[in-house]
Write a structure and sequence with these properties.
mainly alpha; Arc Repressor Mutant, subunit A; Tetracycline Repressor, domain 2; two-stranded antiparallel sheet; 2 strands
Length: 209
C-alpha cells in the first residue's frame, strides 16, 4: 500500500516576511515598543494576525527579528590600514535618514525594565559591531600596528556611545566627516598611545600618564 505524501504547507513568502519586519520597524519608530501590537503590525501590512504568529511566537521575537534585519553588519573591513579599517567599521553606524536611530529610540524605555528585550537588542545591534571592531583590532595586532597596551573593550564601546549620544541626546547629524574626526581624535590616539594609570600616594586619586 502506498503511503500518501503529506501535502506541503504554503511556502512562507520572503516578501511578506520582509514587509512585516519593515512594518514593525516603522511602528517602533512611531509608537515605541510598549504600544506596538501584533494587531497593528498585521493591519499595517494588510495581513491576518495568524500570518505573523506563523513566523514569530510573540512580540518580543518579532521585534528582535526586525532589529536584527535593520542592523545587519557586513564582514569586518581588512584593508591593511588601521585608520581606514576603523573608519569603514564605524561608518556602519551611519544612518542617512535617521530611521534606524528612531527605531532603536522606540525601544529604550522598554529595555530599561525588560531584561530579555535588552539582551536581545544588544545581541542584534551591539554584538555584531563589537565583533567587527575586535576583528579590526586583531588584524592590527597581527600586523604590528598596535600593541596590547590599550583597553580595547573600552575603546570599542566609545564609538557607538559617542555616535548615539550625538544623535539621540544632542540631535545632531553623524556623517562621514564626523566619523573620521571621531577616529582621528579619540580612537586612534587611544590605540596608538595608550595611557596607563599611575599609583599615587595613599589618599590621592590616581592620575593618568
Amino acid at each position: 500500500m502506498t503511503t500518501p505524501t503529506p501535502k506541503a504547507g504554503r511556502p512562507r513568502s520572503i516578501t511578506r516576511e520582509r514587509d512585516l519586519l519593515i512594518a514593525t520597524q516603522d511602528l517602533l519608530a512611531e509608537v515605541g515598543y510598549d504600544r506596538l501590537t501584533i494587531d497593528a503590525v498585521a493591519a499595517k501590512c494588510g495581513a491576518a494576525k495568524t500570518t505573523v504568529y506563523r513566523r514569530w511566537p510573540g512580540k518580543a521575537e518579532l521585534v528582535t527579528a526586525a532589529i536584527t534585519q535593520l542592523h545587519e553588519v557586513d564582514e569586518a573591513p581588512d584593508t591593511g590600514d588601521l585608520r581606514n579599517d576603523l573608519i569603514l567599521m564605524a561608518a556602519a553606524w551611519l544612518d542617512p535618514d535617521s530611521r534606524r536611530d528612531r527605531v532603536v529610540s522606540g525601544l529604550l524605555t522598554a529595555m530599561n525594565h525588560d531584561d530579555s528585550l535588552r539582551v536581545a537588542v544588544l545581541d542584534a545591534v551591539a554584538a555584531p559591531r563589537g565583533a567587527a571592531f575586535h576583528a579590526v583590532i586583531d588584524a592590527a595586532l597581527r600586523r604590528g600596528d598596535i600593541d596590547g597596551g590599550s583597553d580595547f573593550e573600552l575603546v570599542g564601546t566609545a564609538i557607538p556611545a559617542i555616535i548615539f549620544h550625538r544623535i539621540s541626546i544632542m540631535a545632531q547629524p553623524v556623517d562621514r566627516s564626523f566619523v573620521e574626526h571621531l577616529i582621528d581624535s579619540i580612537v586612534l590616539p587611544a590605540l596608538l598611545h595608550p595611557r596607563t594609570v599611575r599609583t599615587n600616594q595613599p589618599g590621592h586619586a590616581p592620575t593618568l600618564r
